[in-house]
Amino acid sequence: MAATETLTAERILEATEEVLRRHGPAKATVVDVARALGVSHGSVYRHFRTKAALREAVTKRWLDRTSEALCGIAADEDRDPESRLRDWLATLFTAKRRKAGDDPELFATYRVLAAEQGEAVAEHVAELTGQLARIVAAGVASGAFADVEPAATARALFQTTGRFHDPAYAPEWETPEADADFEAAVGLLVRGLRP
Question: Which of 86, 88, 95, 139 lies 20 to 30 angstroms, CA to CA, from 68?
């Protein structure tokens, strides 16, 4: 790192991702991250007080990327709720599939980190189900969906489609029938929501 560049939390997180990609979560250390940045490990600890805090922040950053990609769909009040729901679920599936396929080493690392970071994952799931609840509520209000309780329905939708976004199912995402299975599941769910 050039002496004139400011060490920021974002730069540390970027370097941490690269170190995790190279070494995996079992072997990556704060010293490795500091070395990649050209600073002392104490400089990293000034931003993240512990290795666990650094791992939590990098996990949250990764999860937030997915949430941000979906937020615009959930907030788009100009579109009908059914197409928003379909697009939201498809975008989630595509995002998870892309992460698993484009960078399998980092995806495997994040699976390990997510298992360690229960609170960050719980917050992520709450954010996603909140987005789904917003879509369901709009559908109920417009009459496009039956009179259901949005939060409970959002949780059910999220859990029911887990095969298409839970990292444990990643090996199945590239099977020949994955897209057809996804379309069938979403079609069934949407039909079930209609009045």
Answer: 139
